[in-house]
Amino acid sequence: MAGKLAFRISRNIERTGRPPIPQAYKWAEAYVATPTRPLLDMSQGVPGIPPPRPLLERLGVVASSPATCGYVPNAGEPLLREAMVKEMKHAYGEDTDVTPDDIAITAGCNLAFVAAVTAIADPGDEVILPVPWYFNHEMTLSMLGVTTVVLKTSPEEGFIPSPERCAALITPKTRAIVLVSPNNPTGAIYPPSLLLSFAKLARGYNIALIIDETYRDFITTGVPHHLFSPSPRPSSPSPISEPSEPWSWRSTFIHLYSFSKAYCIPGHRLGLICASPALQPSIQTALDNIQICAPRAPQLALAPLLPSLRPFVRGTADALAARHALFRAVLPPRWRVGAQGGYYAFVRHPFAGVRAQDVCRRLAQELGVVCLPAGFFGPRMEEGGEGGEEERWIRFSVANVDDEKVRRVCERLKECERVFGWEMQG
Ligand SMILES: Cc1ncc(COP(=O)(O)O)c(C=O)c1O
């Protein structure tokens, strides 16, 4: 049993919420699975397939060499930083203006976020986060004593944040705007023109724009954005007034990336920060204190393989896009998709006046379907709320299930319409 501590816990940590996913698994414990009715888990944003074979083989070789057991520089293996410049040109276009000096390798994208915020914000500063948010972002800000300022998004706008509404939230204490595209939890993919508007907004107020692009490799419809280009092209006119100087991404933009999803190696902990060399020494001071260096074996294993893994990454993205289409096609008619992309679909349940939390709890307990209510991704966690419109949304991850499971989940969603006995609304 946990004894009583003779000292107090950090106030910032006490204020920080707990990761909500274990709550969903607690609900699922009540479900009695059978061979014909197994538990169906669409809650976790984890890769549903193993890493590519050549990567596993090379990981084995490099991890067992004594030469790879030492530290590497804080910024990461030079070979991987160079290789990532080429991958970024592949992802964003040949005119991508990025060099190895812009890149630091981190032990995962969560840590990239911790390091980036540590480098630019002090306790009491403000950072703007669209809601629904990726809960680790809000938790990190809270842990660091930085105030989260909520930028609401709406289903009518496809959960796409508005630069104009964001502008109204900026104060002298604002240090950054944080975006996630494709989004967790909504799946919304922010258009390049919107990201450019946010970049110009941030530049105009001399604040940073941090974009977490953990899921960028799963965009199959074009490039994620043109911000790394020396002259990014807006594809629609920007309503934000233009700063007088020409766009230079290094003044404003901090890009975060994860190797966990595209290469299916979340346990090996690799991520990346791409930011101006003027910011890198501060980022590396933070990294030196919290990780010294990122794990070395996966860096050495990935570096020479990256170009040859492009077909694997693209194949995974195409398979995921097909599964999104299947999910949309077999979802019962009264369940409405609000946004979809990357790993996630954000879906409105059909029960009038019922909180998504109660729907998810009963789905897990009675029908063995695990998914996450919108309340896990916003200020109103766990309790409260009246079952209003914004509480009707549920995140489904299509990444960690196969097509057959997607069909079975949708059959059970249909079944729950009858079993739950709640009044339904269009
Ligand atoms: C938006 C977002 N950022 C970061 C992460 C964590 O990435 P990593 O495993 O690289 O720390 C996740 C994982 O689900 C995520 O959804």
TrEMBL record:
Keywords: Aminotransferase, Pyridoxal phosphate, Transferase
Keyword Transport applies: no
GO BP annotations, alphabetical order: amino acid metabolic process
Cofactor: pyridoxal 5'-phosphate
Aminotransferase class I/classII large domain sequence ranges: 63-413
Pfam annotation, one family: Aminotran_1_2
Listed GO MF terms: pyridoxal phosphate binding; transaminase activity
Family named by the database record: Belongs to the class-I pyridoxal-phosphate-dependent aminotransferase family.
Designated name of the protein: PLP-dependent transferase
